[in-house]
Design goal:
Helix content is about 30%, strand content about 30%. It is built from 9 helices and 20 strands. Helix 1 packs parallel to helix 5, helix 1 runs parallel beside helix 9 and helix 2 crosses helix 9. The two termini are about 25 Å apart. The model has no long low-confidence stretch (mean pLDDT about 95). The structure holds flavin-adenine dinucleotide (FAD). The site of flavin-adenine dinucleotide has 40 residues, from helix 1, strand 10, strand 18 and helix 9.
């Protein structure tokens, strides 16, 4: 008997896979999302800073810059339309010495090149008006940065995709994908351990931390392609006591060399909780414990800007893991969003290395992938 055929299979019901489902579901009513967890957004999407970034950090030719700037606008509009809680609280990138001032001026120029609106360089006096309690000699003010309830965003994308007729199958893991003349033979493991196979004309690999393994299953040499993922953990500490009220918006240091992360910064969630983080720790293990002794490193990092936060104020909060394709000594790398025709895999679209600003960019990524599907002529 011929296996069942679907038009589009999306692997992963994180914020990116669901955003792709939301847009691609207007192309067919035969779309399925496969997710190994019991619900949506249990992966990277539920362990991050929940910041709607403006798009100042990456070079203009990077998808990370283009999709962040576009995604920022799309996300604010989407939040308004579907009543997803968000706040445009703004951000300052603060310099504490002359060298950092240069870095911040460069960031300002890059932000302008990327088309970010409203950026302003501010003196220490102006900085005091924006954030009266923090220290710094110079800053970049970025009013377009905000925070979002990412869980509501994920639930909304899930609901919209289901309304349009997509199927989302939880507790089910993709364990094989093989190109055949009729499409991709997909093998999934059901919750009872049984294996089910079907053909999919198009496969979209949006599997976050295991997206390299899915590409590998399809026959791609992930080392040669630059698709190997180097998981990179980020821990957060939460600020207790009354001092959290002394910070209004988001406060970032001058960025780290090679942008392995944006530097330990403050974030606020929608409930008003002030957090510090994330640090950057390359790791082999996918586990989310927080090393309490790292509190010292956090305090040291923030002390020049937020001297009023004391050791007794901070407690471990949570951790997330970045799906980096940038290894520990590599230069910065862009998102991979590729229709793999050149690799002989017509119909396979890989989304790999979707680290920050992937949450901000999710809708722009969804639109881009819909465009790739349309251009493929496979539906
Ligand atoms: C510490 C940290 C801070 C961040 N802060 C921000 C921020 O402030 N702003 C921002 O814009 N971005 C931020 N990001 C990035 C953002 O969180 C991610 O880009 C985004 O969540 C990625 O979503 P995703 O859907 O690609 O991955 P995921 O949410 O991980 O979804 C992938 C899904 O695939 C499933 N899956 C994997 N393998 C299989 C399989 N074989 N079969 C079936 N299902 C499978 C997983 O279970 C998972 O649910 C941050 C990331 C981290 C780690």
């Amino acid at each position: 008997m011929e296996p069942n055929t679907v038009d589009i299979t999306i692997v992963g019901a994180g914020v990116v896979g669901l955003a792709v489902a939301h847009y691609a579901s207007s192309l067919t009513d035969n779309l399925v999302v496969i997710e190994r967890e019991p619900g949506p957004g249990h992966g990277i999407s539920s362990r991050n800073s929940e910041v709607i970034h403006a798009g100042i950090y990456y070079p203009p030719d990077f998808l990370k810059a283009q999709l962040c700037v576009k995604g920022n606008n799309l996300l604010y509009e989407f939040c308004e339309r579907y009543h997803i809680p968000y706040k445009k609280i703004g951000k300052v990138v603060v310099g504490i010495n002359d060298e950092e001032v240069k870095g911040i001026e460069a960031l300002f120029e890059r932000g302008k090149q990327n088309g970010v609106q409203g950026l302003r360089l501010v003196s220490s006096r102006e900085l005091k008006k924006i954030e009266p309690h923090i220290e710094g000699i110079f800053a970049l003010y970025c009013p377009n940065t905000g925070i979002i309830d990412s869980h509501q965003l994920i639930k909304t994308l899930e609901g919209l995709s289901l309304e349009k007729g997509s199927q989302i199958i939880y507790n089910t893991t993709l364990v094989g994908v093989e190109k055949t003349p009729k499409g991709f033979l997909c093998k999934v493991k059901n919750p009872d351990g049984s294996i089910y196979t079907f053909i999919s004309r198009i496969v979209i690999n949006s599997a976050g931390l295991t997206s390299d393994q899915i590409a590998n299953m399809a026959g791609i040499n992930i080392e040669d392609a630059g698709y190997k993922i180097y998981p990179c953990k980020g821990e957060y500490f939460c600020v207790r006591g009354g001092n959290h009220r002394l910070v209004k918006g988001l406060i970032y240091p001058s960025p780290l060399a090679r942008l392995t992360g944006l530097g330990i910064h403050t974030t606020k969630d929608m409930a008003g909780t002030l957090k510090l983080g994330p640090n950057t720790i390359y790791t082999d293990k996918i586990e989310y414990t927080i090393e309490v002794t790292h509190a010292k490193e956090f305090l040291l990092a923030i002390k020049p800007i937020l001297p009023f936060i004391k050791e007794e104020d901070i407690v471990p909060d949570m951790a997330g893991i970045r799906p980096k394709i940038q290894g520990p000594n590599d230069p910065i790398k862009d998102f991979v969003i590729a229709h793999e025709t050149k690799k002989g895999l017509d119909g396979m679209i890989n989304l790999i290395g979707i680290e920050s600003p992937g949450l901000t960019a999710c809708l722009a990524i969804g639109q881009m992938v819909k465009g790739l599907i349309k251009d493929s002529g496979l539906l």
